[in-house]
Amino acid sequence: MAADLETQVGIIGAGPAGLVLSRLLRLQGIDSVLLEQRSRAYVETRIRAGVLEQGSTDLLIETGVGDRLMEEGAVHHGVNLQFDGERHRIDFAALTRRHITVYGQQEVVKDLIASELADGGTVLFEVEDAAPTDVTGPNPSVTFRHDGRDRELSCAVVAGCDGFHGVCRGIIPHEVLTEYERDYPFGWLGILAAVAPSTEELIYAYHPRGFALHSLRSPELSRLYVQVDPHDDIENWSDERIWSELQLRLASPGWTLEEGPVLEKAVTAMRSYVCEPMQHGNLFLAGDAAHIVPPTGAKGMNLAIADVTVLTSALADWFHRSERAGLDAYSRRCLERVWRVQDFSNTMTELMHVIPAGDPFARQIQRAKQRYVATSAAMQRTIAENYVGLPLS
Ligand code: RFL
Ligand code: PHB
Questions:
Q1: 17 with 305: CB under 8 angstroms?
Q2: Residue 159 in contact with residue 18, Cβ under 8 Å?
Q3: Ligand nearest to the CA of 169
Q4: What lines the ligand 2 site, CB under 6 Å?
Q5: Buried b (16+ CB within 10 A) or exposed e, 336-375
Q6: Probe target for ligand 2 pocket from 76, 225, 263, with the most ligand atoms within 8 Å of CB
Q7: Domains present along the chain, CATH in parentheses
Q8: Could you read off the pLDDT tens digit of each residue along the chain, which spans 393 residues?
């Protein structure tokens, strides 16, 4: 079948990676088409991340998609780590002079889709069976079904931004791919609750019954999580049970957790994963398609944005100056940040969670680390520097 659509970069997936990539490419005068499996309404309401590193926020503002983010996003200059009821504030401002912004991932997605469509960009939603073809040959393309028709998008480059369960990573031959993986013996049960947040800044709490996190979305909406068994059924968790666990685990002298109606709840398993390389011929993976981190470091969306920043500058060299060195080095350049973030996310995860059936020696080491975080300015600075995010390259 002859291609009925043509562009320079075919992007599979309209999550943060694909949408930010499309925005950055447009500003470089490079044309792209986005193919998304879900409906627009679905991707705009999928509740996920909430924390943007300063570098991510700056990038969204600089690229003209930050108006609502500046108005509605909450700038935070610190975060609380709590061990057995004792709360310790990590002061980003004093330790790094940088900050984070709390703004829902689905709001970022909404803003990017609106700007893409306003600029005349092509985003096809509810696309089925997207398949990159000939990515190592002279005529790459993506075949797919849309509106009951078989279609083909001809493109010089395919960007695999289709998340962890997408199709792009799977076309890299096994023999050239190395996969690194770690599963954690716990998951997060997350809720969105219609109640004013009981805290101005996030609280990450270690408690003998398990981890808990108090985050927020707006003056009227709170986002909270509790550590659960990754295979636990959400049906086992009534709203009363969730609030009662949150009350126990987040409790701190002189502080009250306000409760409210639970609008949404879901359990997510936790995993670390990296594939190397993140490219094959003219296919380039970005974001969760290439790597995932446990959410304790609040890094997944930020890492997706970092990848596509690297990819855009490599693609600009290629399309504008016929220089391929940047594209050839894409994976190597991204993976440096990916592994730094893997280390941080893993450190935060091991610091804050109860390891089921963990050995007593490991618990004592964890306790020593928690005491060190509570008392050492050097350790607090390390956490702050990683949490606010290292500079984008
Ligand atoms: P996404 O967001 O998964 O987007 C991929 C898109 O591709 C589409 N797709 C396809 N389209 C066409 N054809 C196919 N065959 C396709 N297969 C898939 C999907 O429908 C989707 O629209 O990946 P992307 O863009 O790489 O972005 C990654 C982030 O979404 C993810 O890392 C974060 O949500 C992780 N995360 C957090 N990250 C942060 O930076 N800060 C946080 O505070 C934070 N908290 C979290 C999180 C993730 C969580 N869950 C639910 C996993 C908290 C949680 C609970
Ligand atoms: C969130 O607000 O959803 C959130 C915040 C911090 C995390 C993970 C998720 O580490």
A1: yes
A2: yes
A3: 1
A4: 49-51, 202, 215, 223, 295-296, 298
A5: ebbeebbebbbbbbbbbbbeeeeeeeeeeebeeebeebee
A6: 225
A7: 5-76+101-180+271-348 (3.50.50.60), 184-270+354-388 (3.30.9.10)
A8: 678 999 999 999 999 999 999 999 999 999 999 999 999 999 999 988 899 999 999 999 999 999 999 999 999 999 999 998 999 999 999 999 999 999 999 999 999 999 999 999 999 999 999 999 999 998 999 999 999 999 999 999 999 999 999 999 999 999 999 999 999 999 999 999 999 999 999 999 999 999 999 999 999 999 999 999 999 999 999 999 999 999 999 999 999 999 999 999 999 999 999 999 999 999 999 999 999 999 999 999 999 999 999 999 999 999 999 999 999 999 999 999 999 999 999 999 999 999 988 899 999 999 999 999 999 999 999 999 999 999 886
Global pTM reads 0.97
Q: Active site includes 387? A: yes
Spatial separation of the C-alpha atoms in residues 340 and 134, rounded to whole Å: 33
Per the annotation, the verdict on 110 as an active-site residue is no
